[in-house]
Design a protein that fits this description.
The chain is α/β, with parallel strands linked by helices. The protein has 12 helices and 11 strands. Bound molecules: adenosine monophosphate. Adenosine monophosphate (AMP) binds next to strand 10 and strand 11.
Length: about 325
């Protein structure tokens, strides 16, 4: 039986969902992609969908491709697959999740393999700034790509197994900040309830997601000693390559403490600025309590959502302008 809350949400794109299932049926070889520098939502949605297809269509060959993550891989998600280049010469379906633009799709094979796909489906919850692919299912009202995919799978009448449910639950927890951010809705809770009903241990899931090492306290302590705050309440910390080395931290982990500034009166937005010497850029993760910071992120080679966006600086000299733009958002 169809769930009313889930059905109402997919009303405007149910034709596209039908088409997605037609394509899954049509292709024997399927690759699921997502964006680079993966987070819980990217990994969880990708793997959850892969488990679902393998479970319901056992004769299909399904692969998950993309870069690994310094801490999430192994602890929370499995290592990604690397396929021979020749594999991509035969027809295959590409399903890309949680990736707003074509150039953000990640491959672990030094080959832009998704460009070789016979058919590409985009499933995303970011604003559809780059409507790539042959079929798009985009719903920006979903708190996580995992929430959108969970909606589609739970309402499909097919089996949603435990592994699929765990991965989608991780995805949703990740992008809603454990049901904390404004993007969390009745629909989010409905989907979470239906996933938990598949029978997994919630404590084990949170342990895989959030357990840290005692050494991580050193990083948090450094940030609490060294953060700065602008005139109108934009808190930030800067991790230079030298500091990263001192803290024994790879640049991918620089943003991990960004939310220590959440829920303090007078702090309106907060960001981490991390040097990535290998990439020759500064990674920026911006969060906001209420006002949208998305346009500012877009101006600085990034984007994302109203309350959580990413950006990049080519040089450190761009930082004062970025801070000024953010600070200006909060001038009364
Ligand atoms: P992050 O700060 O990397 O955790 O990213 C926060 C949110 O913004 C996530 O939903 C990302 O997918 C999104 N995001 C980060 N960087 C970009 C970018 N360059 N373009 C579009 N969206 C981004």
């Amino acid at each position: 039986m169809k769930n009313k809350i889930l059905s109402a949400r997919q009303e405007s794109y149910k034709k596209q969902i039908k088409e997605l299932f037609r394509k899954i049926k049509e292709f024997d070889r399927i690759v699921i992609y997502r964006h680079g520098h993966p987070d819980y939502d990217a990994f969880g949605t990708q793997l959850g969908l892969a488990h679902f297809i393998k479970n319901n269509y056992p004769s299909k060959e399904v692969h998950c491709i993309g870069d690994d993550h310094v801490t999430l891989t192994g602890r929370c998600f499995p290592k990604m697959e690397v396929l021979e280049h020749s594999w991509f010469e035969k027809p295959f379906l590409a399903i890309v999740v949680d990736t707003s633009t074509f150039d953000r799709i990640s491959t672990s094979d030094e080959l832009l393999s998704y460009e070789k796909a016979s058919y590409i489906v985009k499933i995303d919850h970011h604003p559809n700034v780059d409507p790539y692919g042959n079929l798009q299912i985009v719903d920006t009202s979903m708190g996580a790509a995992g929430e959108l995919v969970a909606n589609i799978l739970l309402n499909s009448g097919k089996k949603v197994g435990k592994e699929c449910a765990i991965n989608l639950y991780k995805a949703i927890c990740g992008d809603t900040g454990r049901f904390l951010y404004e993007c969390t809705t009745i629909h989010t809770f409905e989907v979470a309830k239906l996933l938990i009903e598949k029978g997994f241990n919630i404590t084990k899931v949170y342990s895989e997601m959030y357990d840290q090492k005692i050494s991580d306290l050193e990083t948090t302590a450094w940030i609490l000693k060294n953060y700065q705050i602008t005139e109108h309440g934009v808190a930030y910390y800067i991790l230079t390559d030298e500091t990263l080395k001192k803290l024994d931290l790879p640049p991918e982990r620089g943003k991990e403490n960004v939310n220590v500034f959440a829920h303090f009166e007078g702090i309106n937005a907060w960001l981490s600025v991390t040097e990535d010497v290998k990439k020759g850029e500064w990674r920026v993760s911006i969060r906001s309590a209420a006002k949208s910071i998305e346009d500012v992120a877009t101006k600085y080679h990034g984007g994302g959502h109203a309350q959580a966006s990413g950006a990049k600086l080519k040089t450190f000299d761009e930082l004062p302008a970025l801070l000024k733009d953010l600070d200006n958002l909060f001038v009364e």
